[in-house]
Design goal:
13% strand; disordered N terminus; elongated; five-stranded antiparallel beta sheet; alpha+beta; 16 helices
Length: 424
Amino acid sequence: MTRYDDDTQRTFAALPPAAGRGFAQTWWGRSWLKALEDAALDTAQVKTGRRLARAGAVGAVSVRPGRITAVVQDRDGTAHRADVLLEKLSDAQWDRFVDMAIERSGHVAALLDHDMPPHLVEDAATAGIDLLPGLGDLEPECDCGAWDHCGHTAALCYQVARLLDQDPFVLLLMRGRAESAVLDALQTRGGTSAEESASRPAGVDAAEAYAAGHVLPPLPPPPALRREPGVPPSLETETVPPAGIDPAALAYVASQAAAEAHRLLAEALRSGAPGDGQTGSAEATAAQDAVRLAAGDPGPEVTRRLGEGSGRDGEELAVAVRAWRLGGAAALSVLEEEWTPRGDTYTRARAALGSAWDEDERPSLRARANRWTVVGAPHQLRLDRDGRWWPYRRERGRWLPAGGPVQDPATALAAAALAADEEA
């Protein structure tokens, strides 16, 4: 709560402790603290003041032209009156400030929004008006007897930084003018009422927005990735769902979206390295995404709807899910797409197969497009567009994926044969 004792003094109630947060969030608040921290000869006293302010040891703060005052309590409960002095602007400087602000309507609008754009401060400095304190401008006085900034005056400065965040007119009052006096001067000299200025379109000049870059703190490190994806909110309510909406199915889709987002974020944090073949530059089609959702075992009814929506019957969807679990979208493409390799792919593959067996044991293969089938055996190899071979086996008249991809076709063929033997 703020109390206005008269036009030239404001008293701010004691602020609560500032545990876990910085003392200045705005660029002008940080500039105020920089003036303190750069000028203090004893950094230990500055740290003491920061601890006192953070603990809520600073009482009500009185702000008037040229001076701020508060009672600060030590850890042992001893109270000290602390003052910090700041030079007031002269009448001539205030006249120049008002003229400068009126020249740029954005300055007036910013002040009415209790904002202090960097260009306002820079333009004021060009006119010979220092609004923000510089090195040595914050002069301390304390009844503890210290001649430089002590923990009490430092604590007062940290507390005032929080007040400045809320209202930059606190700084203008310290420099000698109350908020009402500044706004009256702007209205009288500019011929524009505060209401008219406030009604102008919001926003600031682009140069002003970028000018604060040198005082902005570095971005914080990204938060650590949670071990598990988030849990969507429950949809179990007493409200009857609209026609055609299945709450259980909707809850499942939401949980799968959370799991997929968690996986994608984990991969991005691992320097963007491709993971299990489920990601890529191409966006998944609706039919592919239906298989991804079905791979999460959503239950019979949702699985049936996913099959219908993707144009697959129950058996086709089951085979597609099997492929997805082996290698995601890449495995699904191998299952459903047939294409013709070019170049010397066949030659290199035959050479690799030829060197893996003796001549009398070498299997006979019949090639069609990217699929090589063993003559007289339920084994097949399929080549994907990345040059990897996938083993397949034939069961009940249908070719089924039998394992993950490998670079060597002989190894893939051995995996297909082993899968068939295990099935038998």
